Predict the 3D structure of the following.
Amino acid sequence: MRFMIIVKATADSEAGRFPDNPEPVFAAMAAYHEELAQAGVLLDGSGLQPSSKGWRVHYGADGKRTVVDGPFTESKELIAGYTLIQTRSREEALEWTRRFPNPINEGVPCHVEVRQLFEMEDFDGLLSETTAERFRKIDM
């Protein structure tokens, strides 16, 4: 079972600002990710640049695609970073996420969101075997 721990963006992260004293935050995050790696559950993790350096692709009803450059205004809907883990159960993932360091700074209110990723078996009966095999070949 794979889970994504999503760090929500803030006005500061969208402005590219780090906490006044970033060392404790980064040290705690490094220690946590080292623990994940040692336990064999860490798949990936990174912070994301502000949305001002990104873009969105809008798909219209007419099939037309439009690219819109950032920044995007609703920072509470944006993602500032993520950690991707693989565990044996939802409960194990929950235990790991309870230990996730405060990504802004201790004592500063914030939240992270956790979402389970789909696995190929979740699509059994929805995809042809040919299409499912195409995804398996690219290790998805």
Q: What stands out?
A: The chain has four helices and six strands. The radius of gyration is 18 Å.
